[in-house]
Specification:
Elements lengths: L4 E3 L11 E6 L3 H11 L3 E6 L2 H10 L4 E5 L7 H11 L4 E6 L4 H9 L5 E4 L4 H51 L4 H48 L9 H18 L3 E8 L2 H8 L1 H18 L5 E4 L4 E7 L3 H17 L2 E2 L5 E2 L3 E8 L7 H17 L5 E3 L3
Parallel strand pairs: 2-3, 2-4, 4-5, 5-6, 12-13
Antiparallel strand pairs: 1-3, 7-9, 7-12, 8-9, 10-11
Length: about 400
């Protein structure tokens, strides 16, 4: 069997805290790339299979495991299930392609996996995710140590209290030893006071760590439902929001309108001026869209340059007004490219509403608004099309 590989290139890293990370992938190129990305400040272990990973886990103290899903023999999720059972404190991460996304989501929902990254992954994103998970791991393990210390100090306080009671009884019984017992009682009282101060300090430290942990958990929850580039809700959260608003509209007999926005000829901007400028254009466009909608509306990123806006309690007239205002603001904005070219963008917009004879659920409503957007494109772009009832 192939021997486990330890990446020692980070041995001279001056970081005061060295975390042990185990990377599992049957492809050597992927192992080396991940190891290079995560080497700084960490000690890297590499395994070519799940079976080899289990051998390393039995021999080394590992803090975080990041594994590919598809491997010969045991899959990534099967490995993480084994690790959850035997090493529950270890942070478990899964790297998967879009074809296995359902497997990753199911593993997260079952508590098998803490985080996952989709291929092709970005080195910066991977480093950030790993840093966040290791910080949370340190907080959790630190809390456990602090809890053990608190228990020990409580036991020490109980012992001191018992000793004080014994000394008090001896003092009352042996009046002729008053001075000696008095000095001993004073000494024990001082120890008790110091121990009590230590306990108060430890409790305050534990409180601050819990506050920080809660903040990190809230940030992680927000990251899981939003698009990293635009700040809009991501596609998965869009599906959840659509189901909720359709159910509310049906239950209370309310109007619900969805609007799909596509930036015309955005691909040409990307191809001509590069993806970094394209990302800047997308961020600016989403700020313009957000400025024109209400706080109660839900902006989501549907695709690359497509956005789906959920407008609760909104009829088609109000939606048409918003669409025209968004179109006008986008056309009126001047985007300055790196070569100082001045670029104007237009948008094609499709609008559909619920209830509608052809839309009884989330899928049919999305299909309807997509049809409206297609018609707007076919009519020459920079158009607004509403699917009539």
């Amino acid at each position: 069997m192939e021997q486990p590989v330890v990446d020692k290139k980070n041995a001279d890293d001056p970081s005061p805290t060295i975390h042990h990370i185990l990377i599992v992938d049957d492809e050597e190129e992927n192992l080396d790339l991940l190891a290079s990305t995560l080497r700084r400040g960490n000690r890297i272990f590499k395994a070519r299979s799940a079976e080899q990973a289990l051998e390393i886990m039995a021999q080394e103290e590992i803090h975080l495991v990041i594994t590919d899903q598809r491997m010969p023999g045991m899959t990534g999720t099967e490995l993480l299930i084994r690790l959850q059972e035997k090493y529950p404190a270890v942070v478990r991460m899964l790297v998967t392609g879009y074809g296995d996304m359902d497997v990753a989501v199911q593993a997260i929902n079952q508590g098998r996996v803490h985080r996952f990254a989709a291929k092709p992954w970005d080195p910066g994103d991977i480093k950030q995710i790993v840093a966040e998970e290791l910080e949370r791991y340190d907080l959790l393990t630190g809390n456990e140590r602090l809890t053990r210390d608190l228990i020990a100090k409580n036991q020490e306080l109980l012992a001191m209290n018992a000793e004080l009671e014994r000394q008090k009884a001896a003092f009352e019984k042996l009046a002729n030893e008053y001075r000696q017992q008095r000095e001993l009682a004073i000494e024990m009282s001082e120890k008790f006071a110091r121990a009590n101060l230590d306990l108060i300090k430890a409790q305050e430290e534990n409180k601050q760590k819990n506050i920080k942990l809660e903040t990190i958990n809230r940030q992680l929850e927000q990251l899981s439902i939003t698009d990293g580039l635009t700040g809009f809700f991501n596609y998965r959260q869009m599906l959840v929001l659509m189901d909720g608003e359709i159910g509310r509209a049906r239950r209370y007999n309310l109007f619900l309108t969805v609007m799909m926005i596509d930036l015309d000829r955005f691909k040409i901007v990307n191809d001509t001026h590069g993806h970094l400028f394209g990302d800047t254009v997308l961020r600016t466009a989403t700020r313009i869209i957000r400025h024109n909608i209400r706080e109660t509306d839900y902006p989501t990123r549907y695709g690359g340059d497509e956005f789906l806006i959920i407008l609760p309690h909104t009829g088609t007239d109000r939606a048409m007004f918003l669409a025209k205002r968004i179109q006008a603001d986008l056309k009126g904005h001047v985007f300055v490219a790196p070569n100082n070219d001045k670029i104007h963008l237009s948008a094609s917009i499709g609008i559909a509403f619920f209830p509608h004879p052809r839309a009884s659920n989330r899928e049919s409503l999305i299909s309807l608004v997509d049809e409206a957007l297609y018609q707007a494109k076919e009519q020459g772009r920079d158009r607004i099309v509403v699917i009539p009832g």
